Amino acid sequence: MRAERLRAATAAVDAARAELAAAGAEVTEARRQIALESRMFAAGATARESVRIARARLARDVASSDRAAAALREASASRAAIESQLSYTRLAAPIDGVVSLVKAQVGEVGAPGAALARVFDPDNLMIRFQCRAIAGARCRPAPPSSSPSPARIGRCGRT
Predict the structure, then answer these.
(1) Measuring CA to CA, which residue among 24, 111, 21 is closest to residue 61?
(2) Which residues contact 140 (CB under 8 A, 6 or more apart)?
(3) Contacts from 44-52 at CB under 8 Å and sequence distance 24+?
(4) What DSSP state is assigned to residue 50?
(5) Residue 130 pairs with which residues in a beta bridge?
(6) What is the rounded CA–CA span in Å between residue 144 and residue 127?
(7) CA distance 148 to 154
(8) Which candidate, 89, 96, 21, places its Cα nearest to that of 61?
(9) CB-based contacts of 26: which residues, under 8 Å, 6+ apart?
(10) How far is CA 115 from CA 103, 110, 124, in A?
(11) Does the predicted model carry a pTM greater than 0.85?
């Protein structure tokens, strides 16, 4: 659930960035249009009203850019709040044991039910292996000890 909210918040930030970029392009175009209309007015090729309209368009585009910047700040703050909530997420293994494999990286968002790590219980560990045919004669059980260990099942060595 939280991961879905984080993905939605990230998409909102991306959309807000795109809106801000588009608004910035509109402001640049409006400034270019003012410069053009001003030169044309100075040359007597257009009316003063054309310059006034170009300036009004610039003001409208600047306001649109400001709204887009505010939307980006809001979307970024929302995403930061969700990331903060996720930072308090606690993972617990279903058994005591040793972590043998970690599939997720710090900061990565995992899907619900996905395996993030593998834990095994060394008390219930059994290892099966085969010796090669030529080494088979040299494979022998380990000598008994006072505390049996899964790692001391047997030995296969070269002579």
Answers:
(1) 24
(2) 154, 155
(3) none
(4) H
(5) none
(6) 17
(7) 11
(8) 21
(9) 61, 64, 65
(10) 7, 8, 21
(11) no
- State both tokens at 137: 């004669």
Summarize pLDDT for 64-86 with one digit per residue, the tens. Answer: 999 999 999 999 999 999 888 87
Residue with tokens 């599939």: 103
Strand pairing class (154-156; 117-120): unpaired
Q: Are 102 and 114 in contact (CB under 8 A)?
A: no
Q: Which long-range contacts (CB under 8 A, 24 or more apart) does 121-130 make?
A: 121/95, 121/96, 121/97, 122/97, 122/98, 122/150, 125/150, 126/150, 127/153, 129/156
pLDDT digits (tens, 9 = 90+) for 101-125: 888 887 777 777 788 888 888 888 7
Please identify which residue in the block is written with the tokens 């960035």: 17
Q: Determine the Cα angle at 99 with ends 95 and 104, to 5°.
A: 110
